[in-house]
Amino acid sequence: xxxxxxxxxxANPAARLLLxxxxxxxxxxxxxxxxxxxxxxxxxxxxGAQKMPGGQRAWEVSGGGMSTSYWGLKGSEDxxxxxxxxxxxxxxxxxxNGQAGRFTGxxxxxxxxxxxxxxxxxxxxxxxxxxxxxxSTILFNPFVDSYEFSPMIWHTYLGLGSGPxxxxxxxxxxxxxxxxxxxYSTPNYNGLSGSLMYGLxxxxxxxxxxxxxxxxxxFHGPFAATGVYQYANYNSTPGDLSTLVEGMRSQxxxxxxxxxxxxxxxFFGQYMYTKNDELASSWxxxxxxxxxxxxxGGGTVMASYAYSRDSGGLDQTRQTAALGYDYALSxxxxxxxxxxxxxxxxxxxxxxxxxxxRTKF
Length: 361
Fold this sequence. Notes:
Elements: H1 4-11, H2 13-31, E1 35-51, E2 57-63, E3 70-80, E4 83-94, E5 99-100, E6 112-119, E7 122-130, H3 132-139, H4 151-157, E8 177-185, E9 192-200, E10 210-220, E11 223-232, E12 248-261, E13 265-278, E14 282-296, E15 299-311, E16 317-328, E17 333-344, E18 350-360
Antiparallel strand pairs: 1-2, 1-3, 1-18, 3-4, 4-5, 4-6, 6-7, 7-8, 8-9, 9-10, 10-11, 11-12, 12-13, 13-14, 14-15, 15-16, 16-17, 17-18
């Protein structure tokens, strides 16, 4: 009798790739003294319920309560004279059903897939890469990159262009990662660093289709700050913004963030200005986020509130608040529980609540 599990593994390219990667990671260090390859990632699953604004409640076992699950490979090779070749390949997955990607049809290495050169002058990389705006968004709110419980993530990435069940013209177009990009990142100068990313449309006749972003990050003692600007005139493919809003041409986003860490208490603050240009007019959105994390009982209490208001467009106001507790069982594993309230004016309120476990490897 045939073993169906064995047949499925043999037919699954992701399984074959992961097996080959694990074998390579174990043997590479011995074979190449000046090269290194790491296999790493995290698995996060939670159980609870979610009700979108204007929608109905659904009970679920789902992935990515505090962080989206992923696995990755990264490596480097010493080229001499202070230069290194570097690469990263990272794939999201859904632990509740084993599906690769964040959703059906997601690109396999949608988190990162790049190669480049690192030196004392900075790092130059090409491929699919995490955007500077996403990095600033997650570093300066207490719920970091939670797509279930972070108010700032919801106001930034779960709106315009992301296909939610509610009607809104708020939010940032495009993904947390951009394809077809080149990025330069500076070295760290006493806590100050910067990056510049440029993405192409990659289609004949669409050389004007582009995305670009510039960012600085500053860390000095308990104080940290960021500033980032992002421009995009297409979402997934050149010329597709009219599928989001008729006549839409481009979007510009500016965001600043601050934090101050007193060890027992850490404060967060963010402001984001989003300008959307149409053929005949435009509208903009102001977004504010304030948050705090407090050490308590061996774990961390997290609280965050975000407010967005558009001018023109659909004339909406959005308010989202979250409260959570995260407890570390070890250096790599933690458990958490959280509640988030979400409200648009003119729609019934939504909320999300649940508890989960996350482990890193």
